[in-house]
Amino acid sequence: MDPVIWFFALGVFAGLARSDLRIPPAVYELLSILLLLTIGMKGGVELAKVPFDGLLPQIVAVLAMGFLVPFLLFAIARAAGRIGRADAASLAAHYGSVSVATFAVGVAFLEERNVAYDSQLPLFLVLLEVPAIIIGVMLARKVQGERWGKLAHEIFLGKSIVLLVGGLLIGWAAGPTGVKTLEPLFFDLFKGVLALFLLEMGLIAASQVQTLRERGLFLAAFGVLAPVPLATVGALVGWSIGLSVGGTTLLAVLAGSASYIAAPAAMRIAVPEANPSLSLTASLGITFPFNIFAGIPVYFAIANYLHSIGA
Fold first, then answer.
1. Who's near 245: CB < 8 A, 6+ residues apart?
2. What is the pTM (predicted TM-score) of this model?
């Protein structure tokens, strides 16, 4: 198991044990910025090596997945969880969107095994942040024009999108040679930054225990049972559009992950009546640890299987 995952476990243990361990907010903010920029820049550097015109069919397929999956999740949440419309829509938005941290762990997992992945995956990460949030809002309520403007600002100009897209463009414009001087800060320290980020994620996940006790059965079932089928859909899409084993794995990781940054912020503005702790507990308290401890190796195995039968 990759050592960075144990930093998450340490954070969970410290949180449950009520340790006074805390990462200062300013340090956590810096770690987030470094992580998002590095992921974007890595993708941009690789994207600069390949022609862009062949990506359009892949982009359409990935966006179609991003728009269709939330409808299925919404129906399941309403029928199986018997929760209100607003909460079901919020859950669909969280699970239809993606987790940058889970993607980062997936990248570290592949790099540990020297498995290459397609350069467009960071672009797909950016694209999959948005559709589920839009569908979730539409399923929950009709949003007035003024609130749509606020929501669009939160989604498209939120920190995660700006840093990911900005990093992608910087890496693409600079190319492999241009980023050489930046490698010591961004690329060389990537796993160390990810480890500290996961430590804080563990502390936050431990803080969701109370909500888990209140709605434990449904949240635990949804948080564990949803990722693998969703990741399988992502793997099938990746395999069908011609991604490599590494690229198929990462698209499966994205499909099986759940947002706890962009989606909570957007749903707070657009659907304030939804209970934020419900979706956040499921996505961060259950699905995130499930994915980094068990899910990612499973998705890698699914990707390998699909490519073996198609060989």
1. 115, 300, 303, 304, 307
2. 0.83
